[in-house]
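for ur thesis appendix - RRM domain-containing protein. copy paste whatever u need, i formatted it the way the template wanted (i think)
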Amino acid sequence: MPFMTGQQFLQSPTPPGFSVPPDCSVYLSEVPVEFTEASLQAFQASLGIYGMVSAKILARRTPGPTGSVIVKYQNPDLAWAAMSKLSGHPVKLSTGEMRHLIAKPAAPPKESVAPVDLNTSAWFDNTNAESTGNYDLLSLYLADLPSEFTQSDLEQIHQQFGAGLPSSVKILPPKVSGETCSAILRYETAEAAGNALRVLTGFTVNDRSGRQQVLTARYAAQKRFPGGEDWSRTGQTQYPAPALIQHRQHASGADSGGDSLPSVYVSDMPADLAEDGVRNILAQVGLDPASLVAVKFLPRKFQVQSVCVLLRYNDMASVNSAVAALSGFQVVLPDGNSRQLRARVADPPKSTSAPSLPGFGSSGASGFGSLGASGFGGGALGNAAPARDLYVAEVPVEWGKDNLISLHSEVGLEPSRVAQIKILPRRHEQFPTGAAIISYVDEVSAKTALGLLQDRPVYLQDGSQRQLKARFADPPKKR
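the 3d part is after this line
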């Protein structure tokens, strides 16, 4: 989402298909327990958010430093503006720990549960399920549950927030780690399932150790297996596979056919996600997971907590929609830190007969054979225009040019945009980090790299973390 001021948010109309409760209320979680209605109003005013009518602080289910609040606003546009601004906003607890607020439309009061328009609701506008039959509108798939959660715990959440109780609950086996599990919840009516989806999406729970888990909820896939057996007997939910994937399941060899498909390059994806988790994210941002042809996880280099992926689609329209929806979407990494996804249209595969770029030879195990100890062979670094050179500090001392090239791939910038790299001499031998000058083929690439590299976390040999510092390099001194 592009940066907008508070005033711009207030003027932003409610998006088409966005469902705000009749009383214009927003459910806000991860709120520091010391917040009162007055301090919450002052906090919102500092962000340029106005129009709050009341705030109801909810009773906490478990002890902890944060709680939840139902906030009412004067009209739907103000509610949407507040939710857009508050969702993901960092707050500092009294313990000094940082958390990120979670904001979503509040569930209707229990005594007057409003029906959900399943074709336009923001919680399920990614697929017209009634026409495709790909999803079961009576069932929800709930992921990232603490492994000790029971049916009683899930029913308690439903009762607390006014959602109708599920008619049946099936707890699925935990993940390999044993820390979280999934569940299938079935409801009597589609309205009850839709209202439960609104309550459970992004809901935060604590496990026995006090660690927080953010639930992932979506409609369960309606998948029938040979012999008429369905998900309710197998305990499995699957996304329908496009024809291309179904064909590949019977073919041999690598994923060569998908390399020519239009693709989205996404960086900062949590490293612990599998393909199903990626598809869940697509559903959360309003995309149709079924339109995704394939997911390709790229080899990780130095980023321990995140990974880069290629999302294959059959057409450019889907690619452009995915780039717009995923860019800036906030995710939580395995270490608990939050990160915003970076998405762009992936470059087409390079031809094997393409000529080598300046400074990039064809020899060497890493594919950058001309990168010698003193830099690239093609001219002095100072010959490049100053606007194309970046000075990057806090680079781990054990890193070489190949490491920096790989880092560009990690953050979503093609290595071919790099013209030269010069590792600068260390001023202090005992320091664990150094600096480098990186030149790019044009000014646009340099500006793009500046935004991608600035404050990028990197890990040192001892496991500690630093953040890269990048700026445009000073022009070369005249001799």
